[in-house]
Write a structure and sequence with these properties.
InterPro entries: Glycolipid-bd_prot_put (IPR009467). This protein has about 200 residues and is mainly beta. The protein is about 10% helix and about 50% strand.
Length: about 200
């Protein structure tokens, strides 16, 4: 169950953007020949993302398919990921920062994380952006379950989002200050330009 405060924040976030709608998006990697194709399907109080990514990491090519299941407040409730070489990952969340693996074993190392961040796609930047109603200059420091596309071993990653223009531009920064970028988004909250890494093509 979610708290009244969390539900109120979710309602405010939904009023800052239009209601979730079916979307098909594709991003091209600017670091190589990678592509990510995703279909967004809101249904019965959930928002489901199904995507496929091809690319390379550290010189090794990969092919990944994924499904992210969010509740109406854009909180991740399930991640299912598989690679063409047979590896996979299945995580579930209660939407309040508690995680377990696909067989129900608790993963306390991810306590406090509401989002997942998948390497190789800017899709997951949308989740924290859509989850709250932002004011210009507002900053949020977040903990993410980060999944690299070489080992598929998740880890906690600290990230900082600052709203530059509500509904248009956000400053993204790694919590350790090792990386930063200004993200352009569309009216649905999806990244259109991620300088040096991704550009949206549909």
């Amino acid at each position: 169950m979610t708290t009244a405060r969390e539900d109120n924040e979710a309602i405010l976030a939904m009023t800052a953007f239009p209601p979730p709608r079916p979307v098909t998006a594709r991003w091209r990697s600017l670091e190589g020949d990678g592509l990510d194709h995703v279909v967004v399907a809101p249904k019965d109080g959930r928002i489901v993302f199904r995507g496929a990514v091809i690319g390379s990491r550290g010189g090794a090519p990969y092919g990944v398919y994924y499904r992210i299941d969010c509740d109406a407040g854009w909180r991740v409730r399930e991640l299912a990921l598989g690679s063409v070489d047979g590896r996979g990952l299945h995580l579930v969340s209660d939407g309040r920062g508690h995680w377990a693996n696909g067989v129900g074993e608790a993963l306390p190392q991810f306590d406090g994380c509401l989002d997942v961040d998948l390497a190789g796609t800017p899709l997951t930047n949308t989740l924290p952006i859509r989850r709250r109603a932002w004011t210009p200059g507002e900053t949020a420091e977040l903990r993410m379950v980060y999944v690299p596309f070489d080992s598929y071993v998740p880890a906690v990653d600290g990230q900082i989002y600052t709203c530059l223009e509500p509904g248009r531009r956000f400053h993204y920064q790694a919590a350790d200050r090792s990386f930063e970028a200004v993200l352009a988004i569309d009216s649905d909250g999806f990244v259109t330009d991620y300088p040096g890494l991704f550009t949206r093509v549909i």
